[in-house]
Structure to design on (1035 residues):
């Protein structure tokens, strides 16, 4: 491995030397002039050279190599005034650029000289980028703006229903999404069963979701990658911001550690739904607890022009308890240390040390016994990434990573003397390591090619007892010593993108990707709950593999005011996991024996029309798709619709600024009901009526649709203080979307059976107040 | 247990906001399935009931399957063709349950034949049962109210998998049944509550508890019946131990009864 990298290195430097004869390189970092935040994805174009340019990377760094001559760089970012920088052909130069936020965002159409057509020029296909500024006006449940909820309004991304967390991307399962917060894996992206996401939008700078082909530096999940970057904190002045809502409040504090050099950010959020429970005079309710909190911390320091360090942390926890009887809490903690180093004007590197931990704890107190289930997953990752900007037509990224995982799946614990025996479930240890390399090459102004390869090596190691199963019966047992290799899997993941831009407003893109996944989620309930169990690949479980081909056509209309896109994908997934009928999941040492394996396939068409500028902004999206599974032992081994399969999915989002003070917004969603298993008949056993099922997922829930309305009022604004009031009305026409459908005997007439639906929210108004000073 | 946890969480979350109403769902019509409920017990009861499944929207009247040939035999060469005592109910005049015996059942209806076998496991004696009044600490309960707690005591044999089926009667009327395994208390002295919140007894009422030792397959069936509710993401029919049948079970079990007058 090392040798390969060395060879590549020397080759690159050699190229570089040759090239250096008749060219020079401009590089630097792009900042927000007011708060010193680095700007990700800023476009740096060259006025004199058509189709030459670059975009700033995840740390705001850019590097552009140009033939000798005099040029003007145009640096532009949405919501900021663009800047022009003259550069001349001397030696390599460094330009750190500070962009000023656009004072009159609303009139952006007039001010912005050059509208963005990134969607056309970028080679990436199946990408959604969300800037937290863009989503501020979208109405949401309980007035808490939410980046994940916003993502589900884009094509190809959906949730299954209200109150069931999880996101399903292009037919993938919710456990197949890689969710990274400052590079650390977040295992549970929801609070309170999916009513809130774990990401406090005040702490988030930028989110990129890859539904199609993700760059080779990402790996470990087969469906999608969601890369979330936290704000760095203001390095100019101290600021306090916050929001007060009906069921949650949040507060943030940011400021310089050393002005212009370093800054910190602390944001916290807590819900207080349980405070309302306390007000209840009913003893049954006021002893219950139901809340979550999260805390985001970040600090960064610029040691010198070439070195910068970052420290980020996230802690989030949900707590739920009912009297003394039942308690449950779960949460995620992550920590990331990063070191950016600029080796020279063309070579940028980042070194990361990442820790992530997720656990849940269930306590039950019944029959005078205290018992608890504990499940935990821990990992430590060390990662080294390089970006080498070889020329204005060629850039290379490569790196290595090493991850150490420890998993404790659902152990039963007892507090004291008890008639119940504890079950010891062995911890499992595994290592994942490998490297990647990816090159983006623009042979001419129209064509962009990216090719990448990622290597993943998975080692399951002892100590422990490892079993083999056949039909849930143990057929073999092997005991391994500490550090001994039990099972290893090696996977190569090729990825490729081809983009061809016919002109500045028309392009087609094609891509292929393979992803593998060694951490699997076992779930068996309608809602994806915190008690779902994560287990790693083993002698019984093979790595999940996903292959996806996608193509897209992108067109911008009316001088980039409208963006139109159409994408198609076909995805095949191997080694997919499901549970045997009636499987026992809790504290089961032999859970691997309860699993069934099969494959999945998904295909679809995604259409989107987006308007990014003007008084009216928003988008309309439509997805036509199919997602199926085939598992031996389920439905006679025939293909059947996966739960998240929805034929039609429509989202319409509109925001309109009435005046500088008032903005109104609306969203409307519609999707075909999920595939579900309903009974077809009934029979009698032991004098009671029971339901008779014929086929898995053979029925559909009724179609889901809903309209939400919102309005935001900017209150008096001064240099020092700004505040706004947000109003929203969730489910404005009171559609009774079924949360679940139950089949049972009619309570009033036991001689017949009826179907009843339970629905959750009709007309939920909310108001929240946000401030910053 | 898993089902309960998830149910309670969802219950708590939607308690304030949820509403329920009847909904019309167009369900498929299905071919009637044969439902076999076969019991062979050490208490002398041998009872096989045959009925048919019906469509969901029909009234709860399940047609009996008459004139079937029901053959029962054991592994000691005893064998009988059962006679139909009332429509769809077949009983034996000579075969009763014996501990350790394996019973074979063959049911032949007009179109199909179904078979099953089941062994009566070793008997685990029930030591005692108690009844007491305790505060209601259950999830939906109120600790100011009291509930009646019924506890059974037995010693689980060590080293073997045991499965128990308890049936509770009030004045000889069946109230509820419970299934228990020894996953968490193999070989221990067990003091087990029969959790039932709505239990009501008046002074002078007779509480009857039947303890059955059942086979693993029957436990599986009864467990499925309890847990594969509509709350499960993928509800299915309980796993049957009858070959060729979609639904039904054959339980050969021990039986021990204790009474308590409240």
């Amino acid at each position: 491995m090392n040798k390969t990298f060395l060879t590549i290195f020397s080759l690159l430097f050699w190229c570089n030397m040759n090239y250096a004869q008749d060219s020079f390189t401009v590089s630097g970092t792009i900042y927000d002039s007011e708060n010193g935040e680095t700007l990700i994805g800023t476009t740096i174009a060259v006025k004199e050279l058509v189709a030459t340019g670059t975009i700033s990377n995840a740390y705001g760094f850019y590097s552009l190599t140009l033939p000798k001559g005099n040029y003007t760089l145009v640096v532009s970012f949405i919501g900021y005034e663009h800047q022009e920088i003259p550069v001349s052909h001397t030696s390599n130069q460094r330009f750190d650029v500070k962009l000023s936020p656009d004072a009159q965002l609303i009139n952006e159409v007039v001010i912005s000289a050059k509208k963005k057509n990134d969607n056309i020029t970028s080679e990436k296909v199946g990408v959604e980028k969300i800037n937290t500024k863009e989503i501020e006006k979208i109405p949401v449940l309980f007035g808490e703006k939410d980046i994940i909820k916003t993502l589900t309004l884009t094509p190809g991304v959906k949730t299954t229903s209200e109150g069931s967390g999880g996101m399903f991307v292009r037919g993938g399962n919710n456990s197949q999404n890689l969710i990274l917060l400052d590079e650390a894996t977040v295992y549970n992206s929801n609070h309170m069963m999916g009513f809130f996401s774990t990401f406090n939008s005040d702490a988030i700078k930028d989110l990129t979701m890859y539904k199609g082909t993700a760059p080779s530096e990402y790996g470990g999940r087969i469906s999608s990658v969601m890369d979330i970057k936290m704000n760095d904190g203001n390095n100019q002045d101290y600021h306090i911001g916050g929001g007060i809502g009906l069921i949650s409040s949040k507060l943030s504090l940011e400021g310089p550690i050393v002005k212009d050099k370093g800054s910190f950010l602390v944001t916290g959020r807590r819900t207080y739904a349980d405070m309302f429970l306390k007000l209840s005079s009913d003893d049954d309710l006021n002893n219950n607890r139901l809340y979550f909190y999260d805390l985001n911390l970040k600090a960064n320091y610029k040691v010198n022009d070439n070195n910068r360090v970052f420290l980020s942390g996230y802690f989030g926890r949900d707590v739920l308890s009912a009297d003394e009887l039942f308690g449950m809490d779960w949460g995620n903690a992550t920590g990331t240390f990063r070191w950016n180093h600029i080796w020279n004007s063309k070579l940028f590197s980042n070194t990361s040390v990442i820790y992530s931990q997720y656990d849940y704890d269930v306590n039950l107190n019944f029959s005078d016994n205290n018992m608890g289930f504990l499940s935990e997953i821990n990992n430590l990752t060390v990662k080294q990434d390089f970006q080498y900007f070889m020329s204005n037509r060629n850039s290379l990224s490569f790196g290595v990573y090493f991850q150490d995982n420890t998993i404790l799946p659902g152990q039963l614990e007892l507090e004291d003397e008890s008639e119940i025996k504890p079950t010891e479930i062995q911890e499992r240890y595994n290592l994942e390591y490998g490297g990647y390399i990816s090159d983006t090459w623009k042979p001419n102004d129209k064509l962009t090619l990216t090719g990448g390869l990622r290597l993943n090596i998975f080692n399951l190691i002892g100590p422990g007892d490892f079993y083999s199963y056949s039909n849930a019966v143990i057929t073999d047992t092997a005991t391994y010593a500490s550090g001994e290799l039990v099972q290893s899997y090696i996977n190569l993941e090729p990825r490729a993108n081809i983009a061809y831009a016919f002109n500045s407003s028309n392009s087609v893109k094609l891509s292929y990707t393979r992803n593998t996944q060694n951490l699997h989620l076992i779930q068996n309930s309608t809602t994806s709950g915190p008690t779902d169990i994560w287990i790693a690949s083993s002698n019984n479980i093979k790595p999940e593999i996903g292959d996806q081909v996608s193509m897209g056509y992108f067109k911008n209309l009316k001088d980039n005011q409208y963006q139109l896109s159409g994408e198609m994908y076909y995805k095949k997934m191997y080694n997919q996991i499901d549970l045997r009928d009636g499987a026992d999941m809790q504290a089961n040492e032999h859970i691997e024996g309860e699993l069934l394996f099969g494959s999945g396939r998904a295909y679809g068409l995604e259409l989107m029309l987006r308007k990014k500028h003007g008084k009216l902004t928003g988008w309309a999206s439509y997805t036509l798709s199919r997602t199926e599974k085939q598992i031996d032992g389920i439905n006679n081994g025939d293909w059947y619709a996966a739960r998240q399969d929805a034929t039609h999915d429509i989202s319409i989002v509109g925001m309109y600024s009435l005046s500088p003070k008032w903005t109104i917004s609306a969203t409307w969603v519609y999707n075909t009901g999920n595939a579900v298993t309903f009974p077809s008949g009934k029979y009698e056993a032991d004098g009671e009526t029971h339901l008779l099922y014929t086929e898995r997922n053979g029925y559909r829930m009724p179609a889901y649709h809903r309209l939400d309305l919102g309005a935001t009022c900017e209150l008096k604004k001064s240099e020092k203080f700004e505040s706004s009031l947000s109003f929203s009305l969730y489910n404005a026409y009171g559609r009774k979307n079924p949360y679940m459908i139950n089949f049972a005997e009619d309570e009033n007439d036991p001689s017949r059976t009826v179907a009843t639906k339970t629905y959750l929210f009709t007309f939920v108004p909310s108001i929240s107040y946000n401030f910053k000073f | 247990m898993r089902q309960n946890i998830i149910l309670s969480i969802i219950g708590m979350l939607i308690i304030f906001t949820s509403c329920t109403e009847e909904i019309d769902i167009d369900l498929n019509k299905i071919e009637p399935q044969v439902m076999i409920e076969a019991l062979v017990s050490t208490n002398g009861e041998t009872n096989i009931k045959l009925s048919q499944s019906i469509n969901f929207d029909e009234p709860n009247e399940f047609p009996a399957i008459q004139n079937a040939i029901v053959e029962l035999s054991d592994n000691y060469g005893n064998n009988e063709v059962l006679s139909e005592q009332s429509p769809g109910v077949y009983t034996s005049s000579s075969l009763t349950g014996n501990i350790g015996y394996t019973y074979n059942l063959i049911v032949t209806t007009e179109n199909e034949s179904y078979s099953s076998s089941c062994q009566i496991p070793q008997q685990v004696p029930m030591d005692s049962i108690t009844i007491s009044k305790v505060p209601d600490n259950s999830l939906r309960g109120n600790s100011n109210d009291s509930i009646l707690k019924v506890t059974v005591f037995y010693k689980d044999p060590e080293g073997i998998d045991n499965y128990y089926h308890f049936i509770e009667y009030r004045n000889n009327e069946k109230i509820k049944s419970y299934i228990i395994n020894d996953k968490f208390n193999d070989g221990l002295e067990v003091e087990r509550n029969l959790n039932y919140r709505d239990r009501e007894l008046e002074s002078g009422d007779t509480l009857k508890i039947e303890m059955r030792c059942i086979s693993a397959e029957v436990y599986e069936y009864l467990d499925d019946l309890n847990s594969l509710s509509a709350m499960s993401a993928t509800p299915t029919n309980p796993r049957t131990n009858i070959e060729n049948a979609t639904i039904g079970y054959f339980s050969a079990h021990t039986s021990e009864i204790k009474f308590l007058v409240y």
